[in-house]
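Form 7-S
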Amino acid sequence: MSENSLFAYLLRSPWWISVAVALVLVLAARFVVPDEYVKYALSFAVPFMITAVMAAWKQRDVPSEARVESTLEAVSAMSWRDFSALLEQAYQRDGHTVTRRDGAADFTLVKGNRTMLLCAKRWKAANHGLEPLRELDAERRAQEANEAIYVAAGTVTDNARRFAAANRIRLMEGSELTRLLRLAKGAAKKR
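Output:
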C-alpha cells in the first residue's frame, strides 16, 4: 500500500476518523442513492469500518501525548538509582534476565537466545549526539550482542538517528519508554 494512499493515511489517523468517513458514506447513500440501490451503496462504507478496526487495534497500546509528556517529566525528575531500578523491573516483568554493567552499556538484557545491551545513564540529557551511540555500538560489537537500546528523554540529533538506524541501535524515546514503564507503574508511584 502506498504511504500516501487514503487507507494508509486513515491507518495512521485516530480510528474514529475512519468511522466518521463510513458514517458520511452511509448518510450520503441514504439520501442520494435511490432506495433500491441503497444496500449496494452501503457496501462502500465497509472498507472504512475495517480500516477503523485495524487502526483501533494498532492504537490500543499507544499512550496519549499527555501520558508521554507526564512520563518524561516524571523520569526526568528521578535520580539514576530510581530510574535504573524502574527500568530493571520493567524488563524483568517483560521476561528478560537483567544484569547491571559498567561502561558504555548500563544493562545486559537476555531473553531466550537474544542478548541486548541497554544504555540509559544519559536519559536526562537535553540533546543526544553521536558519541554515546558510537560507544554503545562498539560495546555491542565487542559483546556480540544482537541489539543495542539507547534510552533518551531529550532530543536525538538527525546524525545520531541515522547512525542508530545503520548500526542496530534502537532509540527508546517518549512513546516506547512510556509503554515500557507502564509495566512498572506501581513502582513509579512509590518513588
